[in-house]
Amino acid sequence: PRHSRRRSRHGARRSCCVDRLRIGRACAPGSPRIDGGQRLTFAGQADAVIPAGAEIYSDPVALSIAPGADLAISVYLAEAANPQTGHPGARATNFTTAGNHVADPVLTDATPTTRWYSLADVEVGAAPSAGTIVAVGDSITDGYGVPADRNTRWPDVLAERLRASPSTRALGVVNAGIGGNRVLLDGLGPNLLARFDRDVIARSGVRWAILLEGVNDLGVLTRDTPVTPARHAGIVAQVTAGYAQVVARAHAHSIKVIGGTVTPFGGNDYYHPGPASEADRQAINTFIRSSGLFDAVVDFDRVLRDPAHPERLSPAYDSGDHLHPSETGYRAMGNAVPLTVFDGATRSVIGASAPVPGGPAADRRPAIALTFDDIPAHGPLPAGQSRTD
Q: By C-alpha distance, which of 263, 337, 256, 262 is closest to 293?
């Protein structure tokens, strides 16, 4: 198949020059040895400038790879890129070394790191029957706690199952999890509403998105101090309204959205949730299960919770921090997504015993789009005023 690389400067305020870029096959997960490879170019040129906040694509190349194989993308920057666009939770070993060594079959004297830098994604040419599933979420989707190079996040488990089934082996999974991500507010990266178009809609061949977000919105609300009942009611309303926003956007692009229920986090020492936080979680999960907003629902809460203490993760699936699942828990999550959900079947709640309301009408789409950005030249809109454009 033919491949192209997308490199990013999202979040950066200065441009970055990519001087050399190469793709090959990793000899083994976490190994600095590379099997073969090809030089990548940009409109036929070896180098390119990525403007601040932008993305660029490499020219496509032909490279045969096995489904699920690890790739090695080598980049050389002659000048420092500071700050550097990256992903801190790669759960994979990467290597850096001084000098231009992108064509070397092995990086000697390289320093290992578990971060990714600049690479936004790899697009793979495929048959018309192929499609992409984007798992969008927080650190639970990002695989917090998974040892490097084991590829045992729940989206990895789902991808493994898809490849093993003849009816779904043409489907690929993109992991768009960001640690600490929230529906409403920025954290380590942009909030869900700010990044959904970039991370889901703008990707090629996306037919489904699996959405698992909300636990950090609930946790941050009361992490430092208790809040009023009105604030609790407000967070539930705002999170569920955020879900409706991204589902409407996805449906406008013929992308189906599978909602994942928010998993338990009772007993977590970072968020120390109380009964009010648990009530918020239950309210959001009731909305996910029964509102009819989503095309299907996977009840991750039911999969992971302790039956005796449903506000907590089951000890069998708890990593130990009472928020993130263990590898066993992630495998249970990946196994909980039935592959039949991707065959166009009618809406269902996985594991539900009662009928589920139908999804929204196909023509329910946003009438207008509003945006907010911190650009001083635009001038302020004072509080308490209306504006007509």
A: 256
State how far Cα 49 lies from the chain centre. Answer: 26
| Rounded Cα–Cα distance for residues 198 and 80 (Å) | 26
Residue-wise pLDDT for 7-20, tens only, equals 554 555 567 788 88
Tell me if 221 sits within 8 A of 277, measured CB to CB. yes
Tokens of 263: 């998993």
This prediction has a pTM of 0.86
Indicate whether 235 and 309 sit together in one domain: yes
pLDDT of residue 6: 52
End-to-end CA distance of the chain: 47
Kindly state whether residue 388 falls inside one of the protein's structural domains: no
| Same domain? 204 vs 302 | yes
Q: What is the 3-state secondary structure (H, E, C) of 290-302?
A: HCCCCCEEECHHH
Peptide bond just before 357 cis, omega within 30 deg: no
Residue with tokens 């996306």: 206
The whole domain housing 182 covers 126-350
Q: Do the domain assignments include residue 41?
A: yes
pLDDT beneath 70: ranges in the chain: 1-14, 344-389
Tally the domains of the chain: 2
The answer to whether residue 366 is domain-embedded is no
